[in-house]
């Protein structure tokens, strides 16, 4: 009985940790092979070692998350012609993989410019938005939370950093494949809810960019999240959202005009007025007889 209670208690922790997303996914049509990787909590000494090594203080919500589970990994598939196709993926790196972005091998190839070399003041000054864009140099400390399957990077960003001092305030940003920054949330917990809400669909982070996800990713989003597949509603010049404004009288105007078009046709008017022309014709014929 004691083992049974422990299993049920652990399942309850998993249910609260995933916010019930596994049951939601299993209830969606075509979804199969929902897998959640169970992880042990991270040790406090590992968190303290990470903070000392990187001169950063982990936010309280992220610290509590790591003390519950050392990372997050959930994946699911969709059936296409009875074949499971990997589709959804929700990942948060473990403490050991919470590395500075500049240390990733893809950004540290030999004889290649570093990210700091690509950082340009001219490009960031012209960007509109209430949040200051992160920098790749020592003004910001950037750590990768999720590699997004090669479609970008979700990063924990400490901005306005001073060398030799611990950075304390952090935000979550998305770095797209063109190395442009896009703001996601002010805290890890807000990003966590955002991540769960989008079900780990491909390229969901691009909903927070001006250009959005690819057409294929939009099709998947319309299939599994039809009501929230668009991050920003279209707005007309008056500021009102455009929500299916269809006027039947205008949409089917061509059908109501068909009788009018027939009356205006010269061919049809000549055919319908055959009697007067017949009288004129008979008069001319009688004149010829004379």
Automatic annotation (TrEMBL):
Residues 252-265 have a biased composition (Basic residues). Residues 231-290 are annotated as: Disordered. Residues 270-284 have a biased composition (Gly residues). Residues 41-186 form the Knr4/Smi1-like domain. PANTHER family: TUBULIN POLYGLUTAMYLASE COMPLEX SUBUNIT 2. This is Knr4/Smi1-like domain-containing protein. The lineage of its organism: Eukaryota, Metazoa, Chordata, Craniata, Vertebrata.
